[in-house]
Amino acid sequence: MVCALVCIIVGFALRVGGLRLYGLILVLTCTLKLVTIDMFDFDPIARVGALIAGGVICFVISALYSFTVKRLKEEGK
What we know:
membrane, transmembrane, mainly alpha, elongated, transmembrane helix
């Protein structure tokens, strides 16, 4: 997840869309791995907590990404 976050931040800093997309794909991959593989041995309460944490992380990344893209478009005008 840290690598994905770094890719997204560097992609915005250098204005490279491909790097941002790569970071988002990494986030999706990490989240799918969490849901399918990592939580297999968890008890039900830990599964719920992990799913909530994964959802919050994805929501925050999505909100920041949307806000930053919107701001970059406004600066480009």
